[in-house]
Amino acid sequence: MFAVPRPFQRRADAAAVRAAAAPCGDWLRAEAAIMGDRAMSPHRPDSELSRLNAHAARGPVEVSGEMFALLARAVAFSRLSGGAFDITYASVGHLFDYRAGMRPDDATLARARQAIGWRHLELDARSRTVRYTHAGTRIDLGGFAKGYAVDNATSLLRGLGIHHAIVSAGGDSRVIGDRRGQPWTVAIRHPRLADEVVAVLPLADCAISTSGDYERFFDEGDVRWHHIVDPATGRSPDRLHSVTILADDGLTAEALSKTVFVLGVERGLPLVESVPGADAVVVDAHGGLHATNGFGPAGSLAPASGSGIAATRQ
Asked: Class assignment of domain 48-140?
């Protein structure tokens, strides 16, 4: 398991100092459905996203300020990643049924892949409209929607005067402050052993997102088809098993986790290091453990005994 990563321990220590004199009360816990909302669900025919997919190829569609801002962020991540992050992956993604183990045949996949490309999106800030320049283009905000929802929940809690909390939505979490003098601990699960972990990270005042090829998938022989789609091929990337990103906000963390999954270690980790406040932990398809320089020298990587994970350094 990882030794304590220094930059994130510093975050926790700073938060502990601020919280030292805070009064103690009871911890409260609540759960709520925050996904599949009226605006962003691709499965609700009346959602704003579905309306875009139904009509934007025919002409400009006016959208809400929130939707326009999210699409602008998506385009910015596409530029940053050279297209590795691309919400138009849904042009292919909607053809898969992971629960049923169904995928498009190669010819259908090749045709649908022509509709992938963030440059098919035309955003007009003056009219707040969106148009698709390819008839088959579809979008899905699943690449960062959970991170965005976590950010919104965090903002609500801060607005209510909450100074110590953790908000979690599946593989995406964001922590507010610390745990009253101690860091919050978030585990990174082993990508092949559900009851094992690769690392436990002590955190404060940051977001964390993990993407893995074990979340939604089906196996076809030696090939694993999973929910992360490489926009360049329309297929599932197979060089990594999991990517964990730490960042200042949940949207950035989740978007980068998908981006690195597509780019791989050699291109993905330098990209993460170019983003202020971001770091990454990656398990590759051979069981190698990789991390950005924020986790210190190679000697600070100590995988869990018996996990089958081997620490390496670029």
From this structure: mainly alpha
Secondary structure class of 83 (helix, strand, coil): coil
Write out the residue limits of the CATH 3.10.520.10 domain(s) in the chain.
6-21+144-311
CATH 1.10.3980.10 residue spans of the chain: 48-140
Within 13 A of 43's CA, how many CA atoms are on the CB side? 5
Domain 6-21+144-311: assigned CATH number: 3.10.520.10
């649908």: which residue's tokens? 112
The structure tokens listed for 36 are 């599949």
If one counts every other C-beta atom within 10 angstroms of the C-beta of residue 105, the result is 8
Per-residue pLDDT of the chain (314 residues; tens, 9 = 90+): 333 333 344 344 444 434 433 455 678 888 876 555 878 888 899 999 999 999 999 999 999 999 999 999 999 999 999 999 999 999 999 999 999 999 999 999 999 999 999 999 999 999 999 999 999 999 999 999 999 999 999 999 999 999 999 999 988 999 999 998 999 999 999 999 989 999 889 999 999 999 999 999 999 999 999 999 999 999 999 999 999 999 999 999 999 999 999 999 999 999 999 999 999 999 999 999 999 998 865 434 455 555 556 555 54
